[in-house]
């Protein structure tokens, strides 16, 4: 680490601590203010009962004033007792009536619904684009206990969508950052931190104390793990996901009946028995995500959670006033640029041969606890691409020399015309920033399937490259994977003239270029 | 993806998420009737590689109802997709 980055890092840490300190001071001030108000209220009510009141004297059946005062004083001698009395008098605290008033007066919630929320505990796995809005609405609504699971720290690229985090808290753990925001939103909610990544070994112990789980994670492996754990522990699960402009939402294992009981709700495996091939799994970092898209899915998770928690339990006489969530399970598809934006798919009941929720289930608590269920293996993983030989690759430093320095062998001045630099990032990324003189051939074009239309497009870029058959081709991408695959593809198409022309990739892509050559090149 | 009239003798098919990226389309029309069990085969013909890379892990719906057509004894293989039906290919989205 260079001195500059050490200084920068220290500055950031100090800024983070100062912000935290600011929040703590603010919370202390609020707590002191609250305490003082309570004390004043207590004194006031004691005074009310002891002050001389001529009318009260007449109404006191001639009991001596002193005796009466003594009794009242005994009845209300301490502030705490005064508080307890008011708690006992009404099911909710006075401040709760005020805070939750707008939802309390709705028939869907009412007093019973609010008490259910207050007694409920919800676990939110993942405090990112989904978890932030979901947590904000659940804490705002007065869910009694909210657990937060996340092993990551806040990064600048999170902030456009992860609404609980903020610029001064970059570098803080997401769990701590969310706690600061949630505590300031509603200090009545008990927040529980689980600042680690969920693992098969820890899942059961982590989930056990909670009534309901929200899957706000971002990998196929965690989705199967969370669903399996909820099935094993009999907990309903609200699962959502989002990428680019699309989102999905399901309420799973609801109601959470025993394995093989067809009246229980389906689990994640019932709907998606097979994980997507790992090479097709795109993260928000690679594929992109629009803030409101993931936001709307997180908000809907909070809504579904509130519906599940406050749902009228089937009464003795079977008549329920409150609307209950639709009985049949569904998959809600959100597609921001489609019309209509929402589609609700009717799902089937549990699959009779489901690996998790049927009588033939292979997912068991022992298998989970012992770690013998390998979710990463089940979902597959991709290793960084490494398909080229050493002489088909060049480091960013050496490529920089070719661009900037006199060639030590030929004594030639550097010239951009001496070679072709192909940048295979998608056009939208290429338009953000690119190296001078590079030409853009998006990887999707290079790798596209050979349908009739595609082959015409392909021949266009390929013939373009063929027309300069003497110049070596350097292929560049964002991280250095697609560039290797492109080199292979170009050679398959014979663009290297049977080995006459050098085609190779620039190792580590533009990330390496930024780190080793040009610190000013934008990171996105 | 505005709802357009389906030409006669066709059903419409919607591609979501990864299916949309793979086909480069959000929807199209395919000749009806078609046995549900032949749907993946038909799509694989149009988009080579799609079955392994996308379809194998997808949920499939007909007129907003989830159907099961994966595996030799899946219950809906013989369901017939009719003219005017709306089929959707829904890959699992796992990011968040």
TrEMBL record, chain A:
Task: State the free-text cofactor note.
Answer: Binds 1 zinc ion per subunit.
Subcellular localization, as worded in the UniProt entry = Cytoplasm, Cytosol
* CDD domains assigned to the protein according to its UniProt record, in alphabetical order: ThiF_MoeB_HesA_family
Which positions bind Zn(2+)?
Answer: 267, 270, 354, 357
SMART domains listed in its UniProt record:
RHOD
**Which Gene Ontology BP annotations are present?**
Mo-molybdopterin cofactor biosynthetic process; protein urmylation; tRNA wobble position uridine thiolation
Which top class of enzyme applies to this chain? transferase
User: What cofactor is needed?
Assistant: Zn(2+)
Q: Which UniProt keywords apply?
A: ATP-binding, Cytoplasm, Metal-binding, Molybdenum cofactor biosynthesis, Multifunctional enzyme, Nucleotide-binding, Nucleotidyltransferase, Transferase, tRNA processing, Ubl conjugation pathway, Zinc
For this chain, one GO molecular function annotation is: URM1 activating enzyme activity
Enumerate the active-site residues: 284, 477
Record's catalysed reaction(s):
[molybdopterin-synthase sulfur-carrier protein]-C-terminal Gly-Gly + ATP + H(+) = [molybdopterin-synthase sulfur-carrier protein]-C-terminal Gly-Gly-AMP + diphosphate; [molybdopterin-synthase sulfur-carrier protein]-C-terminal Gly-Gly-AMP + S-sulfanyl-L-cysteinyl-[cysteine desulfurase] + AH2 = [molybdopterin-synthase sulfur-carrier protein]-C-terminal-Gly-aminoethanethioate + L-cysteinyl-[cysteine desulfurase] + A + AMP + 2 H(+)
Per the UniProt entry, the Enzyme Commission number(s) are: 2.7.7.80, 2.8.1.11
Q: In which pathway does it act?
A: tRNA modification; 5-methoxycarbonylmethyl-2-thiouridine-tRNA biosynthesis; Cofactor biosynthesis; molybdopterin biosynthesis
Q: Which family does it belong to?
A: In the N-terminal section; belongs to the HesA/MoeB/ThiF family. UBA4 subfamily.
This protein is called: Adenylyltransferase and sulfurtransferase uba4
From TrEMBL, chain B:
Residues the record lists as Glycyl adenylate modifications: 96
Out of the domains of life, which is the source? Eukaryota
Q: In which pathway does it act?
A: Cofactor biosynthesis; molybdopterin biosynthesis
State any single GO MF term: molybdopterin synthase activity
Keywords (alphabetical) are: Cytoplasm, Molybdenum cofactor biosynthesis, Nucleotide-binding, Phosphoprotein
UniProt keyword Phosphoprotein, yes or no: yes
Output the Pfam families linked to this UniProt entry. Answer: ThiS
Q: What does this protein do?
A: Acts as a sulfur carrier required for molybdopterin biosynthesis. Component of the molybdopterin synthase complex that catalyzes the conversion of precursor Z into molybdopterin by mediating the incorporation of 2 sulfur atoms into precursor Z to generate a dithiolene group. In the complex, serves as sulfur donor by being thiocarboxylated (-COSH) at its C-terminus by UBA4. After interaction with MOCS2B, the sulfur is then transferred to precursor Z to form molybdopterin.
Q: Belongs to which family?
A: Belongs to the MoaD family. MOCS2A subfamily.
Oligomeric and partner information: Heterotetramer; composed of 2 small (MOCS2A) and 2 large (MOCS2B) subunits.
Q: What is this protein called?
A: Molybdopterin synthase sulfur carrier subunit
Source species, please? Answer: Lophiostoma macrostomum CBS 122681
């Amino acid at each position: 680490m260079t001195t500059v980055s050490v200084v920068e890092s220290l500055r950031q840490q100090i800024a983070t601590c100062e912000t935290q300190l600011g929040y703590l001071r603010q919370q202390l001030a609020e707590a002191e203010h609250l305490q003082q108000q309570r004390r004043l209220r207590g004194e006031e009510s004691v005074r009310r009962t002891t002050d001389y009141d001529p009318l009260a004297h007449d109404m006191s059946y001639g009991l001596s004033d002193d005796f009466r005062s003594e009794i009242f004083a005994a009845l209300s001698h301490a502030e705490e007792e005064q508080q307890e009395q008011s708690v006992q008098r009404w099911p909710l605290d006075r401040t709760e009536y005020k805070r939750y008033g707008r939802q309390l007066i709705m028939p869907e919630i009412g007093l019973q619904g609010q008490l259910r929320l207050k007694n409920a505990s919800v676990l939110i796995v993942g405090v990112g684009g989904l978890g932030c809005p979901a947590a904000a609405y659940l804490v705002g609504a007065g869910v009694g206990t909210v657990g937060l699971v996340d092993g990551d720290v806040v990064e600048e690229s999170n902030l456009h969508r992860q609404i609980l985090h903020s610029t001064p808290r970059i570098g803080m753990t997401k769990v701590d950052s969310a706690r600061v925001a949630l505590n300031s939103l509603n200090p009545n909610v008990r927040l529980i931190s689980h600042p680690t990544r969920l693992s098969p070994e820890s899942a059961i112990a982590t989930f056990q104390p909670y009534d309901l789980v929200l899957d706000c994670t971002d990998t196929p492996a965690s989705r199967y793990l969370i669903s399996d754990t909820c099935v094993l522990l009999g907990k309903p699960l609200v699962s959502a996901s989002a990428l680019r402009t699309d989102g999905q939402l399901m309420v799973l294992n609801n109601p959470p009946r025993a394995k093989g009981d067809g009246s229980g709700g389906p689990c994640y495996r019932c709907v998606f028995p097979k994980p997507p091939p790992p090479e097709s799994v795109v993260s928000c970092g690679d594929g992109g995500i629009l803030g409101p898209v993931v936001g709307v899915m997180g908000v809907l998770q909070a809504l579904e959670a509130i519906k599940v928690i406050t749902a009228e339990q089937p009464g003795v006489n079977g008549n329920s006033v409150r609307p209950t969530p639709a009985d049949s399970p569904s998959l809600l598809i959100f597609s921001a640029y489609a019309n209509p934006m929402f589609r609700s798919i009717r799902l089937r009941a549990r699959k009779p041969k489901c690996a998790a929720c049927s009588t033939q289930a292979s997912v068991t608590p022992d298998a989970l606890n012992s770690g013998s269920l390998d979710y990463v293996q089940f979902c597959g993983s991709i290793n960084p691409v490494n398909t080229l030989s050493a002489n088909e690759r060049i480091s960013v430093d050496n490529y920089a020399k070719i661009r900037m320095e006199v060639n030590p062998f030929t004594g030639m001045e550097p010239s951009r015309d001496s070679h072709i630099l192909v940048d295979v990032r998608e056009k939208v990324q290429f338009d953000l920033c690119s190296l001078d003189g590079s030409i853009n051939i998006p990887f999707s074009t290079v790798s596209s399937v050979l349908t009739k239309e595609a082959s015409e497009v392909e021949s266009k870029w390929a013939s373009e490259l063929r027309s300069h058959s003497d110049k070596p081709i350097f292929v560049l991408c964002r991280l250095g994977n697609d560039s290797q695959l492109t080199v292979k593809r170009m050679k398959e198409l014979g663009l290297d003239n049977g080995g006459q022309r050098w085609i190779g990739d620039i190792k580590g892509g533009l990330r390496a270029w930024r780190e080793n050559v040009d610190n000013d090149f934008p990171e996105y | 993806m505005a709802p357009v009239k389906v030409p006669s003798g066709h059903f419409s098919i919607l591609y979501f998420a990864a299916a949309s990226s793979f086909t480069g389309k959000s929807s199209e029309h395919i000749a009806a009737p078609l046995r549900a069990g032949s749907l993946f085969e038909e799509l694989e013909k149009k988009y080579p590689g799609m079955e392994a890379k996308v379809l194998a892990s997808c949920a499939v719906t007909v007129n907003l109802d989830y159907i099961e057509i994966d595996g030799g004894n899946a219950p809906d293989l013989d369901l017939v997709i009719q003219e005017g039906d709306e089929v959707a290919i829904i890959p699992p989205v796992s990011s968040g």
